[in-house]
Amino acid sequence: MIDFLNKGELKELYSMQDIYTTSPVTNIYTQSQLNDIENLVDGQLVKYEYASTKEEAEEKFEMKISDTTIVICVYKQYTGTLNPKVLIKKLHQRIKKSGNRVQYNQKVTDLKKEDGIYKITNSDTKTGINKTILSKKIVAAAGPYNGTLVKDIAPYFSSLIIPKRLFLSFLKIDSGKYDELTLEEKNRIRESYPVAYLNSEIFYSMIEKFDSDQRPLLKVGGHFLRTEIKDLDEVWEMQLTEQEIQWSKENTADYLAKLNLPIKSSDLEFANGYSCVYSLTESEIPYVSHALKNGTDIDSIFLLVGGMSGIGAKGSLAYGLIAADLLIGNRNESFMYQKAKSALGSERLIKDIQSIDK
């Protein structure tokens, strides 16, 4: 994508660094996950540091951990944090540079298939004016709205992809407390994010940005802290509860304590937060698949990309590549490509549909 955007330009206007911030990624496990960790690092070519004891963690990372904790830090280019807003902007630029259009402020209100042609009804969210588009091929990638969007064409997706609410909170360290930190301690914070604590809730956190005083804004969430949604259109406006804010502070303080930093939960300020939505499949593996006619026949002109289960931004380019290849008939015989395509595609979808009523 970056190469395509730079093609024909007098100088390179775009770079991967616009999208990715490279930094070590800290992963925290428990001793009970030792077999999984050994399988993960076996034959691993990516540079990493591994601390299986509290003595090693102190020596390698200046971290204080318990006897039941294991820490792995991964060092790899473009492994760190990804900016979805920038990625989406560049994808739109690529679409336009390819000679195609991006229509903004449009909401799809109806999707039907008549005589082998798809009829897409769009509503302008500013004017309310409806317009119908006819298309011979279609890719549905509407996130949590996929089920509603394709209900007349592929109703089974509403049973296979379930939206759930999650929360994200943004925390700052009290300015007085932050000013008391040494330069080495401030650098330790910078170098120790992003982090994922691979426990039952999967606490994860990253530095969103730095304010004018160079205090980090910490984005915090829990990958498995999912709740039911009553109204999908209203969930985005839901405010965080006091319990969710407190969970964010306590888990952040616990991680900062592991970094041997003198910061308590009471030293953390809640800056803001919002509700977001995961589209979940039972296996937590997305679909990049043709829809099915009569339960088993592939509809070669309809594709659905959905069920990202919280890994949409990181996987979007790979999912999009597979979807494009399926739509235009490109072949890629790479072993890993075929393995991914099989895991995401129609063979799995058929099995999943058959299991809906069991």
TrEMBL record:
Domain of life: Bacteria
Keyword RNA-binding recorded: no
Necessary cofactors: FAD
UniProt-listed Pfam families: DAO
Keyword Cell membrane: no
Keyword list, A-Z: FAD, Flavoprotein, Oxidoreductase
Protein name: Glycine/D-amino acid oxidase
